Amino acid sequence: MTLASAGRFIVAGRAEGRVLAADQGLSFWGGVDPATAWVIDAHHPWAGEDIRGRVLVMPTSRGSCSGSGVLLDLALNGRAPAALIFREGEDVLTLGALVSGLLFGRGIAVIRLNETAFAAAMSADRLEVTDRDLRIGALSIPLSPPPRSDLALSDHDRALRDGAGGEAARLAMEILIAMAAQQGAPDLIDVTQAHIDGCIYASPANLSFAEMMLAKGARVRVPTTMNAISVDHAHWRAQGVAAEFGTAAARLADAYVEMGAAPSFTCAPYLLDTAPGAGEAVGWAESNAVIFANSVLGARTVKHPDFLDLCIAVTGRAPRSGVYLADRRRAGKVLHVTPPKGADDAFWPMLGYLAGLHAPDVVPLITGLEALPASRDDLKALCAAFGTTSAAPMLHVAGHTPEAHLPPLPGASRVDLTRADFVPVWQGFNQAPEAIDLVAFGSPHFSLTECRALAGLLTGRRADRIEVIVTLGRDVLRAARAEGLLDRFADFGIRTVPDLCWCSISEPVFPPSARVLMTNSGKYAHYAPGLSGRAVRFGSLRACVAAARTGLAPSLPDWLT
């Protein structure tokens, strides 16, 4: 593609501003404070930058599906970036920009450039987006108009588009068609179920969207589960949560329940009895859940952004694109790992994080671990951490995941990872002092087997000043109670909190006095500094329990020395 045809609008718009460029993606949820527009991801090159009015240039986004809600909130409150420029395909922020323009009249330009034009934008100090081109100094790059939809619509699709299912279904189909066009999807497919991530109160915009769709008559057409929300729905008042926040978060959850979604309130829907099987097409949001569903269950779902998840639930349809297509599930990079001898369960989230750094926008195949045992909980931790550093919706692990036999794409590169590559990850997760105040378990939500494993380690006494909290879904909570595990937790002084998870927890449920936390979650080790404002330590499940007894996080584990 020549420079003269090097770019196109994904979402049309005009903009002018200073460029903020990075060679890695950013998750707006957990990475940008919607109240200030400041970047709070401590691990990102833009940490501390104000993005309002800036032209953001990055290869693609990464991380949470909730980034669309954060972008919408920024737009509704005059704090949005002026434009978004990507090199690769991108759905999450694009959807936020689409919804902002279509439903609220607050458009944000989204542009995709080829390598040459993208390099020019990366090196620019300032640029302008007109109706027809991108101007960088004396350089003018013509921009093609947004892709037109050539979707082969079914009778059902056309009926919903034309309003036969009501105004909410019409809007949902309009958004689906627009997203399908920018994804290059030839048609829409049926999904058997949906999972709503937009029920987290990431910003007031999430509530505005949900209640608007409810008022327009939205009702789900397929079985639909709900992600963790931002409060313990039944107990937030007794927990001392501020009424303004608690009421809004509960209203958001209630709106989706009224639309027909099941109040599962878990970020680990793969632990439910309704988890999909191999080859089943579903419409899930929530990054860790999508990656686990594709990678471990062998189900099929794109990493759908917040708001699109409801559109899919309301119509029962999703664009046939991305990893719904068999060829898009093949690996674009091979990561060969030499496992460190004696590695404990902290190895798996660290591997996921490292894999995402090396495969930020392609599906990786991890080899070399065929003889290493891996439980479902290990793979759960791997997938969650991978989702913080990669935009890819799945990965393969030879010997452990069902589609690892798929041949990599032609030209797939190979990277060798050894113990030395894991040490910087551990160090990045452990920049805090060794004295801790809080141990945080359950990001993603704890499984029943994780509850059993934790209970098996509870010997001795918890240090008086240390708090230990486990977040988990309602179904797991009931099963753990029935097995007597909650009694063992209580004897050690562990609190269990349902409905919300660490990525949505706030004070006072998050202990206000805690300054340093420790977690066994690679996902939360990444997001916690920005989300909680606290310093972080990381280690295995056993190391976290030991820290709860002593108040001190351990140093570099033996398997990394």
Write a structural description.
- It is globular, with a radius of gyration of 23 Å.
- Strand 17 (364-367), helix 11 (376-389) and strand 18 form a beta-alpha-beta unit.
- It has 561 residues and is α/β, with parallel strands linked by helices.
- Helix 5 packs across helix 9, helix 8 (287-297) crosses helix 11 and helix 11 crosses helix 16.
- The mean pLDDT is 95.
- Strands 1-7-6-5-2-8-9-10 form an eight-stranded mixed β-barrel. Strands 22-21-20-23-24 form a five-stranded parallel beta sheet, sandwiched between helices. Strands 18-17-16-19 form a four-stranded parallel beta sheet.
- The longest helix is centred in the first third of the chain and has 17 residues, at 167-183.
- It has four domains: 3-144, Phosphohistidine domain (Glucose Oxidase, domain 1); 155-324, Aconitase, domain 3, CATH 3.30.499.10; 330-427, no CATH class; 430-560, Aconitase, domain 3 (2-Layer Sandwich), CATH 3.30.499.10.
- It starts with 6 loop residues before the first strand and ends in an 11-residue tail after the last helix.
- Residues 152-545 form the Phosphomevalonate dehydratase large subunit-like domain.
- This is DUF521 domain-containing protein.
- Pfam families: AcnX (PF04412), AcnX_swivel_put (PF01989).
- One of its GO terms (molecular function) is lyase activity.
